[in-house]
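Hi R.,

As promised on Friday, here is the backbone we talked about, encoded as structure tokens. Could you run it through your design pipeline when you get a chance and send me back a sequence?
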């Protein structure tokens, strides 16, 4: 029995909720039962790696899907956040 965890950032939720809908639809079409899908919400994208690490340590999930939306603005914040989240997820 495959269990899948999906981590979803609440920040920019107008985008992340649509990403979540798409991910769930794809998993269900791959015959993953809805009761085998765990959804975990985090405040923003920066918290995704920590949540992924905690879920991975439980050794209950065949896969962990990370969903966040970082929107480029006028500062370097976008680059910083994307780099930190990418590096953090790679370490998991």
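Update: got your reply. Pasting your designed sequence below so it's all in one thread:
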């Amino acid at each position: 029995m495959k269990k899948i965890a999906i981590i979803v950032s609440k920040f920019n939720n107008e985008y992340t909720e649509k990403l979540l809908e798409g991910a769930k639809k794809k998993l269900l079409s791959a015959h993953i039962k809805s009761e085998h899908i765990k959804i975990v919400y985090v405040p923003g994208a920066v918290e995704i790696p920590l949540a992924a690490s905690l879920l991975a340590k439980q050794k209950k999930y065949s896969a962990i899907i990370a969903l966040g939306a970082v929107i480029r603005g006028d500062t370097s914040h976008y680059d910083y956040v994307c780099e930190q989240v990418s590096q953090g997820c790679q370490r998991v």
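One thing I noticed while checking it: The chain has a mean pLDDT of 95.

Thanks again,
M.
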